[in-house]
Design goal:
It is a single chain. The chain has 401 residues and is α+β, with helices and mostly antiparallel strands. It contains 11 helices and 20 strands. The chain is globular and about 70 Å long. It starts with 5 loop residues before the first strand and ends in a 5-residue tail after the last helix. It binds flavin-adenine dinucleotide (FAD). Flavin-adenine dinucleotide binds next to helix 1 and strand 18.
C-alpha cells in the first residue's frame, strides 16, 4: 500500500482555507500539510472581491453558527490585524430606516442584536442627522463594533504564517479528481497523484463540485449570486463616517445596497444580488455553458426564482439600469447623482441552495470518513474565518491517522 505523502491536504486558498491550514499547523506542528489553490495567489475569488466589512453579527439567527462565529470572528480578526499590523478601522455602522414600515423592522432587528449580545444604540432622526449629516432617515441602529479591513491582506498574512511554520502550498494547482479508500484520499492535480490521510475542501464557488469528484451526491447546489458595486468619486471619501446600510427586507437573503467605507479610504456603493451565469466570471455578461446548465437543470434554482420573482426582477432591472440602482442608495443618501456612480469590480457569492429552493442560511459542512467539506460559507465567512478554521480543527482532530 502506498504511503500518504500528507496528513492534511486542503483545497482552496481563500480566507477559509488559509485560516484552517494555519490553525491545523499551529495545533499539529508535526503534521504534513499541503494547501492547493488553482489560481496564482490566494484570495482571487470571494476573499478578494467583497465589501471588506468586519461584521458584528447583527442579522444572524440566535444560536446559529453564523451568529457565534461572526461575533467571535470580529474580535479574532481585529486581534490578528493588531498582531500583524494590518490596517483596520472600527468605524461602526448605521442601519437606517427610511419609512414607517422600516421602523418596525428596525425594532425587530434591534431585538435580534440584543439576543445576539451585540451592543447597539438606537438613534432618532435628529441623532442620525447629527451623526451623519449626509444621510436621511427616520431613525437608525448604530452598531459600534462593525469595522473594515482588506481581507486579501489578512489572507496573505495568514498564508505567510502558515508557510513560516513549514506548511506547504502549491499555486496554479487545480484539483481535478479525487478518490477515497480506507487509508487515504488520492488527489489528482496537474497530472500528479497526491495521497493524503485527510482532505479538507474550502473551495467556495466550487464546493459542490469537489463533493461530486469524491463520488458524494451533494444535497445542495452552489448558485452564484453576483454582487455588483459602484465606487464614489474621491471627493466623496468623507461623505459618511460610518458604514450605511438599509434595513434589510426579512424575506430577502441579502443585505441591500449599502455605502461602504473601504480601508483604502474610498467609498463603494453596493452590492446588489443578481444570478450569475459564470461562477468565477466577474464581467457583467460573462457566461459559462456548464455553470448556466448547472443553474437551469437544478429544481432548487427554479424554486428560488419563483419565490423571489419580484425582487429578482427588480435586482436584474437595477443591474442593467443604473438609475434604478442609484435610487436604492438615494433613499438614504439623496445627494448622490448618476455621475457619482463609477465602475468597480463585482464579487460573486457562493450560495448553497437546497433542491426545494431553500437558501442555506447557516454555514454548512459535509463529511466522509476521510474528508470534511465547507459547503456554504457566504458572508460573514470572511469575518468568521478564524473561528471556522478552529471549528474544522476540532472536527478533524485525530482523523488523519
Ligand atoms: C460581494 C460580496 C461581498 C461580501 N462582503 C463580505 C463582507 O463585507 N464581510 C464578510 O465577512 N464577508 C463578506 N463576503 C463573504 C466572504 O467574502 C466569503 O464568505 C469568504 O471570502 C469565503 O471564503 P472562502 O475561502 O470560503 O472562499 P473563496 O475566497 O472563494 O476561496 C475558495 C478558493 O478555492 C479555490 N478552488 C476552487 N476549486 C478549486 C480546485 N478544484 N482546485 C484548487 N483550488 C480550488 C478557488 O480558486 C478559491 O481561491 C462577501 C462576499 C461577496 C461575494
Amino acid at each position: 500500500m502506498m504511503q500518504a505523502a500528507y496528513d492534511y491536504l486542503l483545497i482552496g486558498g481563500g480566507i477559509v482555507g488559509v485560516s484552517t491550514a494555519l490553525q491545523l499547523k499551529q495545533r499539529f506542528p508535526a503534521a504534513r500539510i499541503l494547501l492547493l489553490e488553482k489560481e496564482t495567489t490566494v484570495g482571487r475569488h470571494q476573499t478578494g472581491h467583497n465589501s471588506g466589512v468586519i461584521h458584528a453579527g447583527v442579522y444572524y439567527a440566535p444560536g446559529s453558527l453564523k451568529a457565534r462565529f461572526c461575533r467571535e470572528g470580529a474580535e479574532a480578526t481585529v486581534a490578528f490585524c493588531e498582531r500583524h499590523r494590518i490596517p483596520y478601522q472600527r468605524c461602526g455602522k448605521l442601519l437606517v430606516a427610511t419609512s414607517p414600515r422600516e421602523i418596525g423592522r428596525m425594532e425587530a432587528l434591534a431585538e435580534r442584536c440584543t439576543q445576539n449580545a451585540i451592543k447597539i444604540e438606537l438613534l432618532s432622526a435628529g441623532e442620525l442627522k447629527a451623526a451623519e449629516p449626509n444621510i436621511a432617515g427616520l431613525g437608525a441602529i448604530r452598531v459600534p463594533a462593525t469595522g473594515i479591513v482588506d481581507y486579501q491582506r489578512v489572507t496573505e498574512a495568514l498564508l505567510k504564517e502558515f508557510t513560516g511554520l513549514g506548511g506547504e502550498t502549491r499555486f496554479s494547482a487545480a484539483v481535478t479528481a479525487l478518490s477515497e479508500d480506507e487509508n487515504a484520499i488520492e488527489v489528482v492535480c496537474g497530472g500528479e497523484r497526491i495521497r493524503t490521510r485527510f482532505l479538507i475542501s474550502c473551495a467556495g464557488l466550487m464546493a459542490d463540485r469537489i463533493l461530486v469528484m469524491l463520488g458524494i451526491a451533494p444535497d445542495f447546489r452552489i448558485i452564484p449570486f453576483r454582487g455588483e458595486y459602484y465606487q464614489l468619486p474621491q471627493s466623496y471619501n468623507h461623505i459618511v463616517s460610518h458604514l450605511i446600510y438599509p434595513i434589510p427586507d426579512p424575506d430577502l437573503p441579502f443585505l441591500g445596497v449599502h455605502l461602504t467605507r473601504m480601508i483604502d479610504g474610498s467609498v463603494t456603493v453596493g452590492p446588489n444580488a443578481v444570478v450569475g451565469w459564470k461562477r468565477e466570471g466577474y464581467g457583467r455578461f460573462n457566461f459559462s455553458l456548464r455553470d448556466s446548465l448547472d443553474n437551469l437543470t437544478y429544481p432548487g434554482f427554479w424554486r428560488v426564482m419563483q419565490t423571489n420573482l419580484r425582487s429578482g426582477l427588480g435586482e436584474m432591472k437595477n443591474s442593467l439600469w443604473k438609475r434604478g440602482y442609484l435610487e436604492l442608495v438615494r433613499k438614504y443618501c439623496p445627494q448622490l447623482a448618476l455621475t457619482d456612480l463609477r465602475p468597480y469590480p463585482a464579487g460573486i457569492r457562493a450560495q448553497a441552495v437546497m433542491a426545494d429552493g431553500g437558501l442555506v442560511h447557516d454555514f454548512l459542512f459535509a463529511e466522509s470518513p476521510r474528508s470534511l467539506h465547507v459547503c456554504n460559507a457566504p458572508s460573514p465567512a470572511a469575518t468568521s474565518a478564524l473561528p471556522i478554521g478552529a471549528y474544522i480543527c476540532d472536527k478533524v482532530e485525530g482523523r488523519a491517522g
